[in-house]
Write a structure and sequence with these properties.
This protein is α/β, with parallel strands linked by helices. The chain folds into two domains: about 120 residues, NAD(P)-binding Rossmann-like Domain (Rossmann fold), CATH 3.40.50; about 200 residues, no CATH class. The protein has eleven helices and 16 strands. The strands form three sheets. The protein has an eight-stranded mixed beta sheet, sandwiched between helices. Helix 6 links the parallel strand 9 and strand 10.
Length: about 400
């Protein structure tokens, strides 16, 4: 019997390392990305799912929210001898592991994966949310023309009303059992002076694992503000776009180190080409695939009093670039905790969002562009009135 890993990428290579350390020989990777088929990754060939023999053993090596989709796909091809990778992840040896991720990123991905897997195996008895983007501002210190969160389209970007944002987030945290990752994001969230009090107040909640501040390395908080971020669950995720743009990364790292605040620096040179907003001609089955393989299909987004299923849906609707779809989000004002909980469950039951019909996708089949290419002016786009005329 031959053994295969279903899923490549950095997480797939982490799983390969762990499986090998468990004494199991792996014959090849399986990947849905046709561009990878025929290549070698981690010394193993990559094959198409259609090439796998029916009696093979398959270990699913995906850290995305696509278990049901992958399971159904395996069954469709008569591949019923499969299991999740969770039991192997304790075999990790950071001294010998070679992947592009930092140690902290690997630990975070494994922790999130195990939490998700455990909840699925328990029959989803608890309402566990993987990720929530808390949009603090639409303003940014950069103006990147290919920003996946669509900041480049805002002509008059504005900050969130932090008092209202706090009220909404605290309602959410009181409504769910656990959030793996709260992501304070923009734009550039450090442009908002009151963010530090917001972070400090959010730290009073115990049912989230990490609070991650996403920043582009252009702003350094004062010592006074640094002291307000003493919760060990806080981590800075620093996107380094090079010295010409992310000019203060080195000084920011020094300041964070001084106050023992965790951080990860990612040198970013390419992005996925996923920042266009236009109708796509896809079948429902194709939209299902786009959603199932999306890297942010469980990244809920809190924006101006509404909770959306994903960042693209949130900002494309907020920009009036796509029609409002009632099932893709829900209003938080005047909702009870029970109603908020039910709203989450409805979003989690979606097989794809209406917004997917306008999105280029966020999986590894999507082409890449140079990261952080700047534009002097906001990009033009068709608003809903024009779109509806086309449709």
């Amino acid at each position: 019997m031959r053994n295969f890993l279903f899923g490549t990428g950095n997480f797939g290579q982490v799983v390969l390392h762990c499986v090998k350390n468990a004494g199991i020989n792996v014959d090849a990777f399986i990947d849905l990305n046709e561009k990878n088929v025929g290549k070698k990754i981690g010394g193993l060939p990559v094959i198409d799912i259609k090439e796998v023999e029916k009696d093979s053993k398959i270990i699913i090596a995906s850290n995305r929210n696509n278990y049901s989709y992958l399971h159904s796909l395996l069954v469709k091809y008569g591949l019923t001898n499969f299991q999740d990778c969770d039991e192997f992840l304790s075999n990790i040896d950071f001294e010998t592991l070679e992947v592009d991720w930092s140690k902290e990123r690997i630990e975070s991905e494994i922790k999130t994966h195990l939490s998700r897997a455990s909840n699925i195996k328990s029959g989803n008895k608890k309402l566990v949310v993987n990720s929530i983007d808390v949009v603090v501002t639409e303003k940014c210190s950069l103006k990147c023309k290919d920003c996946s969160n669509l900041m480049q389209y805002y002509e008059k970007p504005k900050n969130a009303e932090v008092e209202e944002l706090s009220k909404d987030l605290f309602l959410i945290l009181n409504s769910v059992d656990q959030v793996n990752e709260l992501r304070f994001i923009g734009g550039e969230p450090l442009l908002v002076k009151s963010i530090y009090e917001f972070i400090e107040n959010t730290s009073n909640f115990k049912n989230f694992n990490e609070l991650v501040v996403f920043t582009n390395g252009t702003i350094i908080p004062s010592d006074e503000k640094m002291r307000m971020m003493s919760d060990p669950r806080i981590r800075f995720q620093i996107s380094d776009y090079g010295i010409s743009l992310s000019k203060r990364v080195k000084n920011l790292v020094q300041a964070l180190s001084k106050f023992k605040i965790r951080y990860v620096v990612d040198r970013v040179t390419t992005w996925q080409n996923c920042a266009t907003i236009e109708p796509k001609e896809r079948t429902p089955e194709q939209n299902l695939s786009v959603f199932a393989n999306c890297c942010v299909n469980d990244a809920f987004t809190l924006l101006h009093g509404r909770l959306y299923g994903c960042p693209f849906s949130a900002h494309a609707e907020n920009l009036q670039a796509i029609p409002h779809a009632a099932g893709d989000s829900f209003e938080l004002e005047d909702r009870s905790e029970g109603e908020t909980r039910e709203g989450f469950k409805k979003l989690m039951s979606k097989v794809f969002y209406q917004a997917c019909k306008y999105c280029n996708g966020r999986d590894y089949t999507v082409s890449t562009v140079d990261a952080a290419v700047q534009t002097k002016k906001p990009l033009k786009y068709d608003k809903v009135i024009k779109l509806n005329a086309i449709l």
